[in-house]
Specification:
About 40% of the residues lie in helices and about 25% in strands. The protein has two domains: about 270 residues, Aldehyde Dehydrogenase, Chain A, domain 1, CATH 3.40.605; about 180 residues, Aldehyde Dehydrogenase, Chain A, domain 2 (3-Layer(aba) Sandwich). Helix 2 runs antiparallel to helix 4 and helix 4 packs parallel to helix 6. It is globular, with a radius of gyration of 25 Å. By secondary structure, the chain is an alpha/beta fold. The protein binds nicotinamide-adenine-dinucleotide. Nicotinamide-adenine-dinucleotide binds next to helix 8.
């Protein structure tokens, strides 16, 4: 019998274990399990769907302003409980506390945006489109909806999804990452405290077994997914085949172009955070720098090397740490393997973080920052998503060459350009084949009132996450044409197609 705390499902407003399988959840800074999470079987997920289905009619009929008020109360509760929530994020994910706070704040902004739902749900109305005829279109809730989220933003990505889904009148089933599930569960409990009726938001933990039920049960009308590209692609295909609306956001390999005229000092500072913040475990991280010109590349390498030497790596709870551990032992081994592969493939390893040991945390999954120079497009460290603290510099001679590289890459999530040249920046933003672009901004993650989404194999589906696209994703349009003939007006049958001629 395990003595570890068990992270339970939240179904119909109650916590329970469901099923018989469990997985350990680790503190990556110590390499020790700190809890075990229940893994839902098909019957447990079906129970959650039934609860969401039962809650739907009452919630859908609740006036949008009342639904929005729950979001406003939740925002306050999230702010009041920030230390607890972020403590759980840092414990199970490993990122430093300041980074967990930043993640939570971005999530809260999505809750804030969802509290504007009554305004966002207003339709369009046209009077007198014909004799005594008015027409309007409105957004109606889809029904039971679901979200499947990744480990790297355990609190923010769920908040991209369910607040807007429920504010639009849907009910929701969240399946957080089984690697760090506690913070999403705590937020769901706070939503109950904020007044969300039981069943409107259910949380089931689990793996493929749980996800497969969400993808095939006909009561689920739409699925949002964020995670790796192979899983995103499979989820998109299975969900669509089962008649659901699906948006599936996948992996990334974001390039930062540094032009010869850039402010190199600022570019280096920006690249440090973008490459090594959250140990590189961000889908908007910058793992590749494309330096235009040899002098630019030399200056960037020198600047990064000097800054890396000042970095403090340690447990996320420690004061003034810049970077914590990787999330799991398996991920640590994978990322380390990429560093080995880069060396074997002939890239120059300028900074080698493989030998790092953190005193008192010898079992933790710590990898120091790594920096490669002379990375070539054929190398695995160029092509594949590493998702760790590994930054590679590619040397090119022109902006056109840099843009051709980015356009040819499989992923198109984010990119940025560092320059003082407005013409180059405008050309870049106009033509680059990437969904989110920064100019002197390394992590161009859209704010909550713009939508988030990549191009190419970074997104499967049409609508982006959160912001205005979330209202479109979680609702369907209905167009109504209504006639109230004036008293005494009588018309004969008309056989021509109705028009305004
Ligand atoms: P993952 O694909 O392993 O898991 C994501 C979710 O899918 C988890 O809830 C997991 O339990 C579930 N899952 C895993 N395998 C599954 C399967 N075979 N069938 C059904 N469900 C399955 O991703 P991860 O390792 O948790 O997260 C890291 C990945 O997410 C990276 O590739 C990163 O780029 C990506 N990501 C993308 C974005 C974005 O907005 N595009 C944001 C964050 C993370």
């Amino acid at each position: 019998m395990s003595t570890l705390r068990t992270i339970q499902h939240l179904i119909d407003g109650r916590l329970h274990e469901g099923g018989s399988r469990f997985a350990d959840v680790f503190d990556p800074a110590r390499g020790q399990p700190v809890a075990r999470v229940a893994l839902a079987d098909a019957a447990t997920v079906s129970e959650a769907i039934a609860s969401a289905h039962r809650a739907l009619p009452g919630w859908k009929a609740t006036p949008p302003l009342k639904r929005a008020r729950v979001m406003s109360r939740l925002k306050t509760l999230l702010e009041d409980n920030a230390a607890r929530i972020c403590g759980l994020v840092t414990l199970e994910h490993g990122k430093v506390l300041a980074d967990s706070m930043g993640e939570l704040q971005r999530g809260i902004e999505n809750v804030e945006y969802a509290s504007y739902a009554p305004e966002l749900l207003k339709g369009e109305h046209s009077r007198n489109v014909g004799p005594d005829i008015d027409a309007w279109s409105e957004h109606q809730a889809l029904g039971v909806t679901a979200g499947i989220t990744p480990f790297n933003f355990p609190v923010m990505v769920p908040l991209w999804m369910w607040p807007m889904a429920v504010a639009c009148g849907n009910t929701f089933i969240l399946k957080p990452s089984e690697r760090d599930p506690s913070s999403a569960l705590l937020v769901a409990e706070l939503a109950l405290e904020a007044g969300l009726p039981p069943g409107v938001l259910n949380v089931v933990h689990g793996d493929k077994e749980a996800v497969d039920v969400l993808l095939t049960d006909p009561r689920v009308k739409a699925v949002s997914f964020v995670g790796s590209t192979p899983v995103a692609e499979a989820i998109y295909a299975t969900g669509c085949r089962n008649g659901k609306r699906v948006q599936a956001l996948g992996g990334a390999k974001n390039h930062a172009v540094v032009m010869p005229d850039a402010d190199i000092g600022n570019a280096v500072s920006a690249l440090m955070g973008a490459a090594y913040g959250s140990c590189g475990e961000r889908c908007m991280a910058v793992p590749l720098v494309v330096a235009v010109g040899e002098q630019t590349a030399d200056a960037i390498i020198a600047g990064l090397t000097a800054e890396i030497a000042k970095m403090k790596v340690g447990p996320g709870t420690a004061e003034k740490c810049d970077m914590g551990p990787l999330v799991t032992k398996a991920h640590f081994d994978k990322v380390r393997g990429y560093v080995d592969a880069g060396v074997e493939e002939g890239a120059t390893l300028v900074v080698d973080g493989r030998g790092l040991k953190v005193a008192g945390h010898e079992e933790g999954y710590f990898l120091g920052p790594c920096l490669f120079d002379h990375v070539k497009p054929a190398m695995r460290i160029y092509r594949e998503e590493i998702f760790g603290p590994v930054l590679g510099v590619v040397r090119v001679q022109t902006l056109a060459e840099a843009m051709a590289l980015i356009d040819a890459h499989e992923y198109g999530n984010g990119t940025c350009i560092f320059t003082r040249d407005g013409e180059a920046a405008r050309h870049f933003t106009d033509h680059i084949e990437v969904g989110m672009v920064g100019v002197n901004v390394p992590l161009p993650v859209p704010v909550a009132y713009h939508s988030f989404g990549g191009w190419k194999r970074s997104l499967f589906g049409d609508l982006h996450a959160y912001g205005p696209d979330a209202v479109r994703f979680y609702t369907r349009r209905k167009a109504i044409t209504q006639r109230w003939p004036s008293a005494g007006v009588r018309e004969g049958a008309v056989f021509s197609f109705p028009s305004s001629r």
